[in-house]
Design a protein that fits this description.
It is built from seven helices and eleven strands. Pfam families: MobA_MobL.
Length: about 325
C-alpha cells in the first residue's frame, strides 16, 4: 500500500509582492505587523492551525534566544535591502494520516532540526489539519526558513551559495559541452541538498509508519519513475481546490464578480486537464503539469486572502490559468 508523498519548496520573494511577515502570520494564524510596510496582517481567526513554534540552532546568537514570530520576521525584512530580495524559504510537508496526532509534532520537529536548523537556519513551523477532498483529515506542516544564518550582534550573515563549475572528472555531454555541477552541495539552494532532504523525509515518515504498525509507505519518486502511467487523482484534487477558491473569491468579491472569476477558472482548469489526459504517452509531463496547476492554485489562494487591518493587497490581475505558462 502507498501513502501520499508531498513535499514542496518555494521561495518568498519581494519581486512577487510577498512579505515573510505576512506569510508567517497566515501560516501561524496570528496577527503580525509588517514594520517595513506599515501593514497589519491579522489571521487570528483562521482555523486549522494545531500548533506552531520557532526552532533555533544550538549555537544561535543571544539576540535570537526567546525571539517571537513578529520580531524574527521583521528582523529578516529589515536585514534585506534590495527591492527584489528573497526573504524566506517555505517547505510544505504532508503527513501520513496513519501517524497518530500525538506523534506528528515531534516527527516534524525532529526532521526539521536535523535537515535545516542544524545547518544554521531558523525555522518557524506551523502544523495544520483540514478536511481533504475525500472527506478525511489532511495533516500537513508549513516550515518557514531563514535565507541567512543569524550572527552577532543582532544581524544576519552571508547566504550559503554555490556556483556551477565543470565536472572535475571531465565528464561531457554528447556534443562535447562539459557537464556542470554544483560547487557546494551543502548550499542552502542546492538541488542535491534538497533531494537529500526529500529522501530523509521519505525515510523518516516510513520509519514512523512502521513503528505504529501501518503497512502504508510514502515514495518520493514520481509516478513515471515507479513505472506507473496513471494520473495523480486529478479530478478529486481539482474539486478540492475549486471549493477553496470559491470560498476565497466569495469573501473578496461581490456575487457577480465571484461567479465570473470562478467560472473562468473552472472552465480553463477542466480544459487543461482534458488536454493532458488526451496524451497518455506523456505521463511524466502531465504529472509535472498537474503539480504546476496545484502550485498555481496555492499562490492564488494566498494572494486572495487580504489582511484584516490596513490596506488590502491588490487582487490578482487574472484568475484564469494557462497550462502553457
Amino acid at each position: 500500500m502507498m501513502a501520499i508523498f508531498s513535499m514542496r519548496m518555494q521561495v518568498i520573494k519581494r519581486s512577487a509582492g510577498r512579505s515573510s511577515v505576512a506569510a508567517a502570520a497566515y501560516r501561524a494564524g496570528e496577527k503580525l505587523v509588517d514594520e517595513r510596510q506599515g501593514i497589519t496582517h491579522d489571521y487570528s481567526n483562521r482555523t486549522g492551525v494545531e500548533h506552531s513554534e520557532i526552532l533555533l540552532p544550538k549555537d544561535a546568537p543571544k539576540w535570537t534566544v526567546g525571539i517571537d514570530r513578529s520580531a524574527l520576521w521583521n528582523a529578516v525584512e529589515a536585514g534585506e535591502k534590495r527591492k527584489d530580495s528573497q526573504t524566506a524559504r517555505e517547505l510544505r510537508l504532508t503527513l501520513p494520516r496513519e501517524i497518530p496526532p500525538d506523534q506528528r509534532i515531534e516527527l516534524v520537529r525532529d526532521y526539521v532540526l536535523r535537515n535545516f536548523v542544524s545547518k544554521g537556519m531558523i525555522a518557524d513551523v506551523a502544523w495544520h489539519n483540514k478536511v481533504a477532498s475525500d472527506g478525511l483529515e489532511q495533516p500537513h506542516a508549513h516550515v518557514m526558513l531563514t535565507m541567512r544564518p543569524a550572527v552577532e550582534p543582532g544581524g544576519w550573515g552571508q547566504k550559503v551559495r554555490h556556483d556551477w563549475i565543470a565536472c572535475p572528472q571531465g565528464r561531457t555531454h554528447d556534443d562535447g559541452r562539459p557537464i556542470m555541477i554544483e560547487s557546494n552541495s551543502q548550499s542552502w539552494n542546492s538541488a542535491e541538498y534538497y533531494e537529500r532532504c526529500r529522501e530523509d523525509w521519505e525515510n523518516t515518515a516510513n520509519a514512523a509508519l512502521a513503528r505504529v504498525g501501518s503497512a502504508e509507505r510514502i515514495d518520493r519518486r514520481s509516478l513515471l519513475e515507479r513505472g506507473l502511467a496513471r494520473m495523480p487523482e486529478p479530478a478529486l484534487r481539482l474539486a478540492y481546490y475549486l471549493k477553496d477558491l470559491r470560498g476565497a473569491l466569495k469573501e473578496r468579491f461581490g456575487q457577480f464578480q465571484m461567479a465570473k472569476h470562478y467560472q473562468a477558472v473552472e472552465s480553463r482548469a477542466k480544459a487543461a486537464f482534458a488536454r493532458m489526459e488526451e496524451a497518455p504517452t506523456r505521463a511524466g509531463d502531465a504529472a509535472r503539469n498537474f503539480q504546476r496547476f496545484y502550485d498555481w492554485f496555492d499562490r492564488q489562494l494566498d494572494r486572495l486572502a487580504p489582511p484584516r487591518d490596513g490596506p488590502e493587497r491588490e487582487p490578482p490581475r487574472s484568475t484564469t490559468f494557462d497550462m502553457e505558462r
